[in-house]
Amino acid sequence: MAIIINEAVLEDKLTQLEQARNWNPRVVSRLESAIRTADDYDLFRINPIQYATDRNMDEQEAIDLFLHGTKLGLFELEWHLVCAFCAHVVESLSELSSIHSHYKCSFCQAENDVALDDYIQIAFTISPQVRSIRFHQPEQLDIEEYYLKYHFAKGLQPFPNGMTQQQVGDLITRYMKYVEPNERVVVETEITPGMLQAKDLLHRASLVFFLQEHQADMEAIPIHLTDGKFHAAGRTPAPRTVEQTAATFQFGATDELESGKVQIEFTNMMDRRSPLWIMHYPADFESFYVSFNPFLSGKRLLTTQTFRDLFRTETLSVDEGIAVKDITFLFTDLKGSTDMYDRIGDLNAYYLVRQHFDTLITAITNNHGAIVKTIGDAVMATFLSSSDAVKAALDMLQGLDEFNKTISVPLYLKIGIHSGPSIAVTLNERLDYFGQTVNIAARIQGLAGASEIYVSQLAQSHPGVAGLLTNCHVTREQVVLKGVSGKTDVYRISLSR
Predict the structure, then answer these.
(1) Neighbour-count burial of 336, counting CB atoms closer than 10 A to its CB (0-12 exposed, 13-18 middle, 19+ buried)
(2) How far is CA 455 from CA 45, 236, 476, 491, in A?
(3) DSSP three-state, residue 491
(4) Cβ(13)–Cβ(73) under 8 Å?
(5) Is the pLDDT of residue 349 over 80?
(6) Does residue 301 lie within any of the structural domains?
(7) Where are the beta strands (DSSP E) in 376-412?
(8) CA 46, CA 78: separation in Å to the nearest integer?
(9) How many structural domains compose the chain?
């Protein structure tokens, strides 16, 4: 298939991309080469972390590259809700506001609760205005690509039982072909106890037979696809819930069948072809949580300053909150800012405060963090790890020390850090966070004096934190925090003099 590129659009977008920021050498030229020469599948749902690994480039620069490219129209950003048990891309959404916290997988029927940390993945697909790829028209894909590439997330690691996705597919597949409108196909197969499933993801049709421990004579099963549903003649399928250790599966249409030889007579009575996949799962087939090669998670994207700068209007639904299993919050405030305003006046004080924000922003973005909001003289920021937050806090104190040498009225920072679970929400038309972890982080910040960092024990115990504090003065304290039962262990940190 010939590569079709809109040269004028590509040239214009690449020129704008080069001017968007200072990129390392060849970053944009390598991207241009990929757009021009890569296989269609390589330009479909690009994982920027894998892209960076393949080209030995910085991960954050790769993320920024695709975010700027999306803003300019080179790529389309996709939020993927991925099934935790089969890796099916249950939904591919173009806007954060469309994400919801609970869904049922249309492939394996497992119920899923999503968190920003793991099963919300971010990927980028080349814009059809730049280059046309066959994955822009999924109904035109061959049947294997339609199911195994279009409907499943990339980068799936082997299952806990050691099998790869391809091996599982080979194990369960009894028939996989397109069935044209009004076409009738006959599939004969021998099945052991377990589960037999007919699937058509184009029409979202599914029919499941649970196989009993009995060897029967050949049984004919007439199935018609009508009105987007499978209808088995002479049978009345019913919903069924199956509980397994890892998951709950809610099947909408099920029946029972004796094991042995079966003849499935399938007729497509719809006006478009049916991608029919008939699968047999042995009785000992287990469901596992799947895992992936490193990818851009929803949590990491929301903790990327470039995303917050370029996509300020992206918010969650006001009625929806999405869990974050672990995230680090950093709060700052200026000591004695009210007195400073009285001493030097509002205008001069405001000028100094704005300059101090520059120092803080540099420290945050250089350490893989993002500013959630500023509140007067204070900053609330998020980080993927506590070590990044602590490193940013140390950089802030050192940067402010240097800044104070250039001004007559020194500024002194107070910093607090805490990690834990939270809920990503929309407040005041912007992305924010809610929950006790946020409250504790803010109250820990309130303990700090001038040029001090207070870190919760939970944050301090994270990998890499202790090594950052080798040259600092560190003391451990037990404190009582408002709204928190019992005493809380915290660490008071100051730069060594």
Answers:
(1) middle
(2) 38, 61, 10, 5
(3) strand
(4) yes
(5) no
(6) no
(7) 378-383
(8) 10
(9) 3
Residues 291, 394: Cα–Cα separation, whole Å: 35
Amino acid occupying residue 307: F
Are 331 and 447 members of one domain?
yes
Task: Please give the Cα distance from 375 to 389 (Å, whole number).
Answer: 19
Residue 196, domain member (yes or no):
yes
- The beta strand positions in 272-405, using DSSP E, are 274-282, 296-297, 322-334, 369-375, 378-383
SS3 148: helix
Question: Pick from 109, 124, 150: which residue ends a domain?
Answer: 150
Runs of H (alpha helix) within 58-113: 59-72
Residues 340/352, Cβ–Cβ less than 8 Å: yes
Whole-angstrom Cα distance, residue 167 to residue 144? 14
Residue carrying the six token digits 């909408």: 252
Residue 482: give the domain boundaries. Answer: 315-495
CB 368 within 8 A of CB 391: no
In this structure, what CATH number is given to the domain that contains residue 412? 3.30.70.1230
What stretches of 173-304 show up as alpha helix (H) in DSSP?
Answer: 298-302
CA neighbor of 137 nearest in space, from 125, 123, 152: 125
Mean pLDDT computed over every residue of the chain: 93
Contact 85, 110 (CB under 8 A): yes
**208-236 pLDDT, tens per residue?**
999 988 766 788 999 999 999 999 988 99
Residues 346, 453, single domain; the answer is yes
What confidence category does residue 446 fall into, taking pLDDT thresholds of 50, 70 and 90? Answer: very high
Give the type of residue at 157. Q
pLDDT tens-digit map of 265-303: 999 999 999 999 999 999 888 888 899 999 999 999 999
Question: How does strand 229-232 pair with strand 238-243?
Answer: unpaired
Amino acid symbol at 340 = M
Q: Which residues pair with 375 in a beta bridge?
A: 378
- Interatomic CA distance for residues 41 and 187, integer angstroms: 31
Q: Residue 209 corresponds to which tokens in the numbers above?
A: 């037979």
- The helix (run of H) or strand (run of E) holding residue 358 is helix 346-366
Residue type at position 234 = G
Q: What is the pLDDT of residues 97-123, one digit of tens each?
A: 999 888 899 999 998 888 999 999 999
How far out from the chain centre does Cα 351 lie? Answer: 38
Cα three-residue angle 327-56-8, rounded to 5 degrees? 100
Domain endpoint, select from 111, 127, 150: 150
The token pair at 357 is: 């924000």
